[in-house]
Amino acid sequence: MKVVLVIFSSLRADHLGPYGNRWLRTESFDRLAEAGRVFFGTNCGDPDPAGIRMELLTGLDRRRFTEWKPRGEYTLPGRLGRTGYQTALFTDNFPMLELYERSDSFGTICNIPGQGPDRHVPTEFSPFEDAGRAGFNAIISGQAAVPPDDQLDAYARNLSFYGHLGHPSQRLVQAVNDFLAKIRREDRWFILVDAYGLNPPWDPPPEFTRFRNADDAKNLAWPVPGPVNSSDPDISRQINFLRRAYADGCLFLDHLAGKLAAEEEVNLIVMSDHGLLVGDENFLGYRSGPDSPILRRQVLISRGPGVEEKTRHDGPIRPVDLFASILAKLGPEERVVSDGRVVEELFR
To answer: Which of 21, 168, 224, 229 has the most CB within a 10 Å radius?
Structure first.
């Protein structure tokens, strides 16, 4: 059995066709839903990105994390490794990379650098000096302030050093598919793919900018989280621009979803870690902890050999439940301590 679990960062469920959206054509997510089961009650409780991933890796509620330190053998990939499964992590989500490395539990880790202000770039390679800074005047933020200089420098280095290779999330998907093509058919694998495709600045490839108008076609969307005054004409313009840029990013992720693990013998689980507030309730960007159903609601779609097609599940699901469910399907019969419950519909 091969299981590929994909996390798309900051993807709102209400922007996808399977969850009722009718103004964005998310054809890849629609096909996934047709081939499997859509889960409508998935909720992260607290949209903290690290906490969500720790719950998935450990099966323990994030409130335990103040003193509890993860050890590789007790994590999801660590336990699966003891049962004969091989495990791999593919990610371009540089803020989460250290968390994964600390768990010391994946047999293989493939990091795709180059996302936004990713620190995993050669620091000595920085051709963008004072003369190049003028190109960043178009950056728009929710609080009419440009990002800190250290982020600008890293972003410029990434564009120069990796730009010719294509968008990092596209390279990530290609790396996963190349990997799946090379492993043996009879091998048992658990592969986690953590795609940071919607990180600011939202600058997808040109073919995924169809919602932008002539005035903002070349601008970068770099929101600074915080409340906004919607009566300010300039702020309203920026909010609308960010809405269009976010819609473009969702279409980009839909494109990626259509390229991932197309083989029918692969159990593909696609989820988001949380949503994102873009012009909702006079708020712009992301912050940890706000009591918003948009932020807490998660995408979760499962497709695979044993999953019934064109079905839905309405019961509540948390990230810790994925830990329990995957172990129940793939792992040892021994009792595992977890704050999650088994959702059998994930694989049938």
So the answer is: 168
> Is residue 306 classed as helix, strand or coil in its secondary structure?
coil
Q: What is the mean pLDDT of each run of 10 residues along the chain (348 residues)?
A: 94 96 94 96 90 92 69 86 92 91 89 84 50 40 50 77 86 94 88 89 77 72 70 77 87 93 85 89 68 91 94 96 94 78 94
CATH number belonging to domain 2-346: 3.40.720.10
Predicted pLDDT at 127: 43
Q: Residues near 93 by Cβ (< 8 Å), separated by ≥ 6?
A: 7, 9, 115, 194, 195, 196, 199
| Domain range annotation of the chain | 2-346
Q: Indicate if the alpha-carbon torsion angle 270, 273, 279, 281 is positive or negative.
A: positive
| β-pairing verdict for 283-285 and 277-280 | antiparallel
Query: What are the residues facing 38 on neighbouring strands?
Result: 301, 312
Q: Could you tell me where the DSSP H helices lie in 300-342?
A: 319-330
